[in-house]
Each structure stands twice: as structure tokens, then as C-alpha cells.
Amino acid sequence: MKATKQQLQEWKEKYGQFFELKSEDGKSCFLFDPATSMTIMKQVATAMASSDEEFALSILNNCWIGGDEELRTTDGYLNGFIEELKEILQVKPCTIEFEKELPVLVCEEHRLAVRKPTRDDCINAAKKNRGKEPFETSIALLKLISLDKDAFETLRQKHVPHFLAMLTAVDKLKDKVVVTVKKY
């Protein structure tokens, strides 16, 4: 599928970042960034646990803007896109800085002040995810340790890629001691 400059501009305005995937025989499709929707990211994570094909279909079906339909319906194309679709999902880097001895999660221009999670925080967050939904335990934990609930909600609702990056950093805040196992 060939997109016009006008179409590309309209899609940029509507979807923000988007991608073009092109096969070696010239067929192409356009997908918006799945990381812009927490709902889609949960579906993708669930599908990823099932198989690479389910993962690819989840992205193609949920993020499709337009393109050659064969890319969604023909196995050869689907299998060819799996690795490329994994590249799309690269999570933004998140660092941890300290201000007045308190950790601050930093992802690009977004900052969220938190406290270190305790064992009870981890247990309580897990209890909130009885259905074992992807990301829900991490979201609950980040909400518990967030020192600015308004900033947490703004990130969660309006800056999903940055929020996802912060979810991945929470585990680094947990106190850990190196343990070894010796079998007898």
C-alpha cells in the first residue's frame, strides 16, 4: 500500500508515532505504536505468553491503521514480521535518581517521586491482581509507593510509554541480598 503525504500527516496527527512495515515484495502496512495504550499492551503481553504468532496478530489487529490485508491473513507475512514487531515494543529507558535520599523514577522529561517498596507493599499489590492480569501487580505497586498520586495518574493516562518504562524500574528499587543455594 502506498500512502500519500496527506494520509501520513493525518495519521501522525491522529496516532502520534506510527510505523510502516514493508515486505520484500513491496506490500506494506501502517501500525500505530502499541505502547500508547495500556489496554493494548495488556493484550499484547497476554498474547506474547501464548506464542509469537498470537503476539504478532495481537499487534496487527489492535494497531492496524491501513495497508495490504494479506499481511494480516497470510502466514508467510505474519512469520516474517514477528521480529520486526518485537523491535517496535522496545521500552523506553527509565533511570532512578535520588533527591533528598528519596528515589525518583525518570523517563525522558517525566519524573515520579517514589519510596522504596516494602515486602507488605509487594504482597498487597499482588493481592489486588487476583485475575493475574499483565502489569496489574506492577501498577498497583507503583501506585502504593508513588509520593505524588496526581503525577502517577497523569503518567498512567496520558504518557503510557513512559509509565510502562517506570513499571519496569520498580523492581530495581526492592531491597535484595545475593543468595546462593548449595545442594546436598
Q: What's the gist of this structure?
A:
By secondary structure, the protein is α+β, with helices and mostly antiparallel strands. The chain is 51% helix and 16% strand. It has helices at residues 5-15, 38-50, 52-63, 70-73, 75-88, 119-127, 136-145, 149-158, 160-170, and strands at residues 18-22, 28-32, 64-67, 95-99, 102-107, 110-113.
Overall average pLDDT: 88
**How many beta-strand segments?**
6
- CATH C-level class of the largest domain: Alpha Beta
The string of secondary-structure elements, in order, is HEEHHEHHEEEHHHH
Description:
This protein has 184 residues and is an alpha+beta fold. It has 2 domains: 84 residues, rbstp2171 (2-Layer Sandwich), CATH 3.30.2220.10; 79 residues, no CATH class. Helix content is 51%, strand content 16%. It contains 9 helices and 6 strands; from the N terminus they run αββααβααβββαααα. The strands form 2 sheets. A 3-stranded antiparallel beta sheet has the order 1-2-3. A 3-stranded antiparallel beta sheet has the order 4-5-6. Helix 2 runs antiparallel to helix 3, helix 7 crosses helix 9 and helix 8 packs across helix 9. The chain is globular and about 55 Å long. The model has no long low-confidence stretch (mean pLDDT 88).
